[in-house]
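Recall that a protein's primary structure is simply its ordered list of amino acids. Everything else, from secondary elements to tertiary packing, is in principle encoded there. The following example makes that idea concrete.
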Amino acid sequence: MEVDRGKASHKLSQLDLKFSSGSYDIEMYWFRVMTVEQDWYIGRHTHSAYEFHFVAEGMSAVKTDMDTFMVEQGQFYVTKPGEYHEQVNIQGKQYVEYCMHCQITLNQTASTEDALLFKILNDSLCKAYNDRNGIIKLFEEVLASAYYENIGYYGQIQRYILLIITKAIQVMSEGKQFDYAVPLKHKKGDYRFELMSQYIKDNISSPMMIKHVADYMYLSEKQISRIIKKKTGLSAKQYINQIKLKKAKELLKDTDMLMKEIAEQLGFSSEYYFNQFFKREEGFPPGFFRMNTSF
């Protein structure tokens, strides 16, 4: 079933889209399709919010206090708060425009990247930009989401809004160079160590061997041992045992589980082998540890 653009626009305009995401607080005042034919004219006016105009069909002339320009299918323009503009059609042909009229503010958690995007939005000229980023198609995805109302569509539309704004600003900033820092993962060795450490903890109830960790990480057993040794000073086997011992102490201290149940949860084939492991690591059996540790 094809999307009925008129019905989709109506459904979209009925949604209360006021949300915060990351650095942005956004409120959509209108979000819709404007379709006009024959002669039409929108007189000089301004808004206290941002207007994004994406042309899906036809052509119009836009006049601001600074310039007059043509905008046609596959192009867009943006007016900022307080920016006066007027618009008239060309040759009386059908004109279809996807419109976003919204308030955009940065919150106190604004990242360097988002603050820079916001600055570009406010510094850019009101003129015709070529949609090289597939923004019009994104808007049509929004219309489809509103039309079909599949589960998750409201949150999906919010994410599309952020993507449309970001992609528009990217086009508006073309030809400019920016250098700024973004969060990076830890060093390669640190990142791998954290992954394998979490894997061991997540699978503590299974009989854990170095081979299992190596298979998960797509590394050799020697590489696993080398990374663990560098980070902890322990062999891979010692590190696995250290994690098991720590978990064993938590269960002995904080639960009333039977020894057999603890043994099973830690991947031991029997209570006997769990006792032998604990005594080898600590010098005394787990029962002694439990008796001498208050809940």
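The radius of gyration is 30 Å. The longest strand covers residues 24-36.
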